[in-house]
Fold:
Amino acid sequence: MNWNRWCCCVALLLAPLPVLARGLHVDLIDYPRPEANWDRAYGLEAALQREFDRLCADTWCEGDYSNYQALEFRCAVLAHRGTVQRCTWVIAASEVAIDADTGKVQVDNGRWACPLELQPGVPVEAFHAALEAPEGLAAPLPGLDHGLFDALPDCLRKAGRVG
Structure:
């Protein structure tokens, strides 16, 4: 084997190493390269937080806590295919009271990690386009019969992790 062929073979064998080094899945923020989707992902998260605040107060945020906050919404992307696989909402809530006898501030809080399973093969661009469309936050996601907010009430009815 001559030198040129040997170098080409080595290059072909080493080419997939960067993908393997970072794993099969990446955060939506880091698809197709680190921080490439930063603005869109955080714009989506901000829009979801606003919609969460609007819906939460009027509907399903009731119970042990009075202060619910949508903290993060993150999605896993199968990097080599560019498809969103699953997402998770992280929701926190708190209730604060003052003990009248001691003056101590008493804090009770909970948190939930609410999964959103998607149909396999939803391209990143189709996922963003669906959510950025008018009323996209409330509309069914590609390949599903429900939207982002449909699974939250059941998730929030479960006992949140206290801590």
Observations:
- The helical segments are 3-14, 17-22, 38-58, 124-132, 152-157.
- The CA atoms of residues 127 and 142 lie 7 Å apart.
